[in-house]
Structures are given as structure tokens and as C-alpha cells.
């Protein structure tokens, strides 16, 4: 655990400390990009990686540049309508970013231990515990303003409480859009107003203004990105599936919503992704070296804390291909840019109703059933895995609905019970054992 | 009176005064399957249709689409085997991307609310029709038709027949089924979308009621005083209050 007494540090030292981890993560990804550039010849898949790393690194570097040079930048979430930040030319990073990055793997276990040492309950979602720990130990860049999150779960607002008490963060202005529970037109109108107020808040606290023509352009560019994503997802219906676990949640979702949403660079990445997938589909090939035997739907976030211990094993040991996952799923509607009102309503719908995890956890619970029905049929799914993340208590409450839906569809359903970030909660060997027994008993292996 | 009777009537009103083409198909599944130029049935379209293999695209989001399904116990409201097309047929759409509307109307004396989710499964044709792929999206119908299938004779009548075969084979309670397709223009599809919004409200209520019967509440009917998370909300309100006093917070919406 990092035991530095932050109260003894001066302003410059606090700044330096808050950026140390962020710089390390940037350097980790830079190393991969450098390695790619040293290769004599790049395959189409290598080019895809190169484009992804470039987008990620530019985003990280821009935030660092702002932090180092006292320029405005913000912290928020993917479901805060990131198209607005991009239209305002406001660099941002996701408050819960670190637990989702492969770069964090080497120190994640120590950080989780650190969360326990500062007294955070182990029943609080680890994805929330970790940023609390990073704030409390001064390891997260301090933004000019924060966009909070009071949905989809009641754990997320814990971060706000920490910010309020933390010496370095307590004066950072916070705005949290209020989400209605329902999903009808009235709810969308209401949330659209909340997003407008969010833009006013950002304008007030960062000095960056919002030009609606620019926002329309960003949304139109974003529509191109999303259209390509949908096209790519159709290619995943092919048997064998052209890609495995590494694309949907880890990359397609991240590129579309986590860095510079609505930038032509993102469309360019998706075009390359479609190109890569088409090559394999045309050749009737799946993932190199893997014979596809089971197509599964992983209905949650990936187990980012120990992803490399499970997902490749599933492919190699069982020929089990993650054909679709919660964050790789495409339930989006393109944004109508014909008027300002329609733009806000489009953004409201996307961020209140379509965005992954929000879509399921905020509700209604019908989405759990509907998504399973659609995905199982469209992607020729052999089984559905609900990992049962300890933080996703909302989903646990919908376990019965998911199980019954799967029974009606005659597709096996597995609920595991684990922590997607902490390998100590249910260790990877135990998870492998559970999945193996499930595959065997259901005659899938 | 069934929950969707009013909407079936609205579809009828929508059709009146528009230029339509009608196809009348036989009622039985066996007769529907006769002389089809492309394969119909599970795994008839195991692959996907790439852009380079595409003859026409229906309901691309840039063009607009709308699709819904309505049902009734009153078999007199549905003209069994009728396919109505507003707009050009597939063979006239080479290389085109057009707006698309699809309405399925089914009737059967034994139909009840339990059937809702089951019939929804079959309104998207999935891999059931050779040369036709419905692109995955929860609120629209985005279809692609392959060049090969059009060369074999694929058209809207075949698509309608395939939908009837798929639905009637899998939902034996159905006694009559009628299909409407729209490919004419954005306005026509948009007007259909207005009916779709009303249909969706009814659909949601039916699904909630069905799950409630099964013992699951899709809506959490709690008020603040009976909710066990009240403590958490109270904490948040305290934070908001404290932040506001300091002038650093701007929490949106209701603070209840």
C-alpha cells in the first residue's frame, strides 16, 4: 500500500504524485506501440492494434499535457455523453479507468489489498473501491471538474463522498446528471435537460464553450463510428467467429466511448476492424490456432483483473469463443442531428438507455431478458454465462429472469459468482473448474 | 377486445389511400413452402451477407426503419395469407438502400399474453431464409438481400411467406397472419413508426404483467419510505447539501 502522508506534500508534489501512475500506464502502452513500429511488416491485425494504441495514447498524453500545464481537463464516465466533451475540446479520462486497463494488472492485487487497509468494505464493487483508493492515496490526476455518476448502482456515489472529504479533491466542482428510472419519452426529455445542464456546468468551470454546430458534427462522425461497429458485429455472426474476447468490450466499446467519442480516428479504427474481420470471414477462418466448438455469451464486463488467465484458456482448452459480451453488444440508435433538440434527445437515449451495464442495471429488468433472447438467436450462442460479479447486485436480482429466459430458449445458463477484478475472491482455477463442469454436464465439451 | 385491436385498425387506416401491391398466399405451412426459389427453414442462411455480395439494403439507420408485431384473438381482423407492399419490390432495388417498414399481424383464438415474447423471437427472420440477413439491432429492422438470392427469384412475397412459415411453424396457436412491408419513402416509414411507439407501450405492459405472473417484478414498485436504500439516498442528499453550501456541487434533477 502507498502510505505517503499527503498532507505533508506541497502542491507541486501532489501534482507529481497524482500523475506518476498515469504516466506509467501511458509508457506501458507506448512500449507496445514502439514494439509494433519496429516490426518489419505489419499484418492487418497489427495495423488495427497500432491504430487502437495511437488513439489511447493520444488521449492519455493530452490529459497529461493538461495536468502538467494547468489546462482544463475533466474526469467522468462513458455514459456522461462523451461526444459533448469532444465537441467542447475538453480532454477527459474515465474515473474508473485503471481497473479496466491491462496495464494495471501488475499492481492490481497490491492496490486491492490497499483498499482493504484503508478500511473499504470488501463487499463494495472493486471497480469503485480502486478509484477511491487512488484518490485517497493521491494516485489519480486531479481534474478541473468531475462528472459524477449516481446510476446505475448505489456504489458509484461512494466516490463522491470520498472526493468531498479528500483534501486534494474537495474543491473540484462536481455535476451528476440525475437519471430517471423509466425509459419512456418523458424520461428521455428529462435526461436531455440534465445533459444540457451538464454542458453549462462544464462551460462554467472549464471555460470551454459548446458550439452546437460542432456537437452536430461530432455526433455525425460518431454515427459513422457506430454504423461501422454494427457492421462489424454482423460479421461476428459468422461461424467460426472471426475474433474472440479481445475485441468487443476491451476495444470496440473503448474506442467508441472512452477516448474521443465522435472523432474520425475512431471510425478509421472500426473500418480497419471490419476489414480484418472480412478477411477471416471470406476465408471461412476463425481465430488463428483455435478450433471453435462452443460459442458463448459473456453477459457482463470482462474479468479485467485476471483476464489473461481465463479468456485465452477458454479458447485453447475448450475451443470456447466469446462470441458476444455485454460491452460488445450493439443496442444503439444513431443520433438524429437535424435539430438541437433531437441531438440532445439522441444523446440522452444513448447514455440513459443504450450504454452497456447502464442499460441492464438501471433498468428495466426486461433488458436482461430481451438482450439474451436477441443475442442467443443472432449469434448462434451455445450457452450464456452470467459471471455474477460481486458488485453487480442488480444483476444478481435478475438472475431468475435470465435463467428462465435461457430455459425457454433451451440454451444452458451458468451463474458463477466472482469478482471481475480481484482474483482472490473466486480464484481463476475455481472459475475454470466451474466452467469446465458446466460445459461437460451440458454436453458442450 | 384484444389489447392490439386498436393498433390493427390503425394499420388498416394507414394502408387506406396508399398505393399498394397485394399478394395472397395459401394458409397452410405446407402450401406456403411449395415452389419457393430459395431455402426456408433453420440454418438456411448460415453465413452472413457482406457488402460486396449485397443486392439491396432495407432499413439502414440513415434511411430509417420501423417494425412491430401485433396480435389478436379476433381472427376476423386479420386477412390470412395477405402480404401488402407499399413501394418498390426487391428486384427493382439493385444497389439501393431504402427505408423499411415491416408489420406482422397475427390472430388466433388461443393467443394470449404468454405468447408475446415467443412471437417476438420470430419476427426477425434470423438464419431462416437463404439470402436474407437481418442485421442485429433491438429497435429497428435492417436487412440485407444477397445478389445470389435475387438471381434465384427472391422478392417481398418470398420474404413474407418465409415470415409466415417461420411464425406459423413455431407458434401453433396462430390461425391467421398478415404482413405489411413498406419500402416507399422515409415519410411512410416514419408514419408507421408512430403506430410502433403506441404498440411498444402496450407490449411493455404485457411483458411486465407476464413476468409478474411468473413471480418477477420488472419494475421496482418501491417508494422512498419503503426502500431499503433510503439510507444511501439520504447520505447522497447530505453530500449534495454540503457541497452546495460550499458552492462546489451542481447536482442535477430532483433532490426529492
Distance between termini of chain B?
A: 41 Å
Instruction: Provide mean pLDDT of chain A, rounded.
Output: 93
Helical fraction of chain B equals: 25-40%
Strand content of chain A: 5-15%
Oligomer: heterodimer
CATH topology of one domain in chain A: Rossmann fold
Based on Cα principal axes, name the global outline of chain A.
Answer: globular
Average pLDDT number of chain B? 88
Secondary-structure element order of chain A, N to C: HHEHEHHHEHEHHHHEHEHHHEHHEH
Structure summary:
The complex is a heterodimer of chains A (445) and B (256). Chain A is an alpha/beta fold and 445 residues long. Chain A has helices at 11-37, 44-68, 82-87, 97-100, 105-117, 126-136, 158-165, 185-206, 212-235, 248-257, 264-282, 307-318, 340-354, 358-361, 366-378, 393-397, 399-409, 428-441; strands at 74-76, 92-94, 145-147, 174-176, 294-298, 320-325, 383-386, 413-415.
Could you characterize the architecture of this molecule?
With 445 residues, chain A is an alpha/beta fold. Chain A has helices at residues 11-37, 44-68, 82-87, 97-100, 105-117, 126-136, 158-165, 185-206, 212-235, 248-257, 264-282, 307-318, 340-354, 358-361, 366-378, 393-397, 399-409, 428-441, and strands spanning 74-76, 92-94, 145-147, 174-176, 294-298, 320-325, 383-386, 413-415. In chain A, strand 1, helix 3 and strand 2 form a beta-alpha-beta unit. In chain A, helix 5 packs across helix 6 (126-136). The longest helix of chain B is centred in the C-terminal third of the chain and has 28 residues, at 186-213. Chain B has 256 residues and is of the alpha/beta class. Helix content of chain B is 35%, strand content 20%. Chain B contains seven helices and ten strands. Chain B folds into two domains: 5-213, 2-Layer Sandwich (Bifunctional carbon monoxide dehydrogenase/acetyl-coa synthase(codh/acs), Chain M, domain 3); 224-256. In chain B, the strands form two sheets. In chain B, strands 1-4-9-6-3 form a five-stranded mixed β-sheet, with helices on both faces. Chains A and B meet through helix 7, strand 4, helix 8, helix 9 and helix 11 of A and helix 3, helix 6, helix 7 and strand 10 of B.
Amino acid at each position: 500500500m502507498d502510505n505517503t502522508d499527503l498532507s505533508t506534500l506541497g502542491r507541486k508534489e501532489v501534482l507529481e504524485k497524482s500523475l506518476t501512475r498515469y504516466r506509467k500506464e501511458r509508457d506501458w502502452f507506448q512500449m507496445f506501440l514502439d514494439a509494433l513500429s519496429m516490426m518489419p511488416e505489419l499484418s492487418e491485425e497489427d495495423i488495427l492494434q497500432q491504430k487502437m494504441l495511437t488513439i489511447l495514447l493520444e488521449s492519455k498524453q493530452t490529459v497529461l499535457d493538461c495536468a502538467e500545464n494547468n489546462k482544463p481537463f475533466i474526469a467522468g464516465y462513458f455514459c456522461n455523453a462523451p461526444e459533448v466533451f469532444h465537441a467542447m475540446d475538453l480532454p477527459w479520462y474515465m474515473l474508473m479507468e485503471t481497473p479496466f486497463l491491462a496495464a494495471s494488472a501488475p499492481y492490481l492485487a497490491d492496490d486491492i489489498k490497499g483498499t482493504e487497509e484503508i478500511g473499504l468494505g470488501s463487499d463494495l464493487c472493486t471497480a469503485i473501491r480502486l478509484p477511491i483508493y487512488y484518490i485517497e492515496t493521491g494516485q489519480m490526476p486531479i481534474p478541473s471538474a468531475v462528472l459524477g455518476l449516481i446510476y446505475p448502482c448505489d456504489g458509484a456515489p461512494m466516490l463522491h463522498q470520498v472526493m468531498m472529504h479528500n483534501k486534494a479533491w474537495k474543491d473540484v466542482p462536481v455535476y451528476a446528471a440525475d437519471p430517471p428510472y423509466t425509459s419512456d419519452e418523458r424520461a428521455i426529455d428529462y435526461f436531455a435537460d440534465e445533459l444540457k445542464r451538464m454542458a453549462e456546468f462544464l462551460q462554467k468551470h472549464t471555460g470551454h464553450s459548446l458550439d452546437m454546430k460542432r456537437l452536430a458534427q461530432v455526433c455525425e462522425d460518431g454515427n459513422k463510428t457506430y454504423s461501422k461497429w454494427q457492421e462489424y458485429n454482423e460479421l461476428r455472426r459468422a461461424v467460426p467467429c472471426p475474433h474472440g474476447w479481445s475485441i468487443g468490450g476491451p476495444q470496440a466499446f473503448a474506442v467508441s466511448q472512452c477516448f474521443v467519442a465522435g472523432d474520425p480516428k475512431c471510425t478509421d479504427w472500426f473500418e480497419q476492424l471490419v476489414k480484418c474481420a472480412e478477411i477471416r470471414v471470406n476465408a471461412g477462418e476463425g481465430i488463428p490456432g483455435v478450433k471453435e466448438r462452443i460459442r458463448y455469451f459473456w453477459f457482463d464486463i470482462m474479468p479485467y483483473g485476471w483476464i489473461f488467465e481465463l479468456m485465452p484458456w477458454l479458447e485453447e482448452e475448450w475451443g470456447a469463443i466469446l462470441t458476444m459480451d455485454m460491452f460488445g453488444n450493439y443496442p444503439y440508435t444513431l443520433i438524429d442531428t437535424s435539430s438541437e433538440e433531437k441531438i440532445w434527445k439522441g444523446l440522452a437515449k444513448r447514455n440513459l438507455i443504450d450504454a452497456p451495464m447502464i442499460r441492464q442495471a438501471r433498468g428495466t429488468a426486461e433488458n436482461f431478458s430481451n438482450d439474451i433472447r436477441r443475442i442467443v438467436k443472432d449469434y448462434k450462442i451455445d450457452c450464456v454465462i452470467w459471471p455474477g460479479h460481486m458488485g453487480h447486485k442488480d444483476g444478481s436480482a435478475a438472475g431468475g429472469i435470465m435463467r428462465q429466459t435461457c430455459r425457454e430458449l433451451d440454451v444452458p445458463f451458468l451463474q458463477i459468482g466472482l469478482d471481475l477484478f480481484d482474483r482472490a475472491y473466486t480464484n481463476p482455477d475455481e472459475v475454470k473448474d466451474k466452467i469446465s463442469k458446466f460445459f461437460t454436464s451440458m454436453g458442450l465439451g | 377486445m384484444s389489447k392490439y385491436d386498436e393498433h390493427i385498425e390503425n394499420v388498416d387506416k394507414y394502408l387506406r389511400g396508399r398505393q399498394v401491391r397485394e399478394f395472397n398466399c395459401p394458409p397452410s405451412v405446407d402450401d406456403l413452402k411449395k415452389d419457393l426459389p430459395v431455402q426456408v427453414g433453420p440454418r438456411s442462411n448460415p453465413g452472413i451477407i457482406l457488402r460486396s455480395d449485397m443486392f439491396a439494403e432495407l432499413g439502414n439507420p440513415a434511411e430509417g426503419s420501423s417494425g412491430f408485431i401485433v396480435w389478436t384473438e379476433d381472427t376476423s381482423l386479420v386477412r390470412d395469407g395477405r402480404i401488402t407492399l407499399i413501394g418498390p419490390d426487391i428486384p427493382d432495388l439493385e444497389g439501393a438502400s431504402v427505408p423499411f417498414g415491416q408489420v406482422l399481424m397475427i390472430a388466433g383464438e388461443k393467443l394470449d399474453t404468454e405468447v408475446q415474447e415467443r412471437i417476438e423471437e420470430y419476427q426477425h427472420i434470423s438464419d431462416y431464409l437463404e439470402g436474407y440477413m437481418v442485421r442485429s439491432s433491438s429497435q429497428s429492422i435492417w436487412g440485407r438481400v444477397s445478389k445470389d438470392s435475387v438471381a434465384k427469384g427472391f422478392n417481398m412475397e418470398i420474404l413474407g411467406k418465409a415470415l409466415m412459415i417461420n411464425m406459423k411453424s413455431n407458434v401453433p396457436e396462430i390461425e391467421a397472419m398478415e404482413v405489411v412491408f413498406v419500402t416507399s419513402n422515409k415519410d411512410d416509414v416514419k408514419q408507421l413508426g408512430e403506430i410502433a411507439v403506441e404498440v411498444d407501450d402496450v407490449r411493455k405492459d404485457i411483458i411486465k404483467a407476464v413476468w409478474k405472473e411468473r413471480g418477477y417484478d420488472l419494475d421496482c414498485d418501491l417508494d422512498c419510505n419503503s426502500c431499503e436504500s433510503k439510507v444511501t439516498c439520504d447520505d447522497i442528499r447530505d453530500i449534495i447539501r454540503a457541497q452546495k453550501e460550499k458552492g462546489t456541487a451542481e447536482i442535477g434533477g430532483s433532490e426529492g
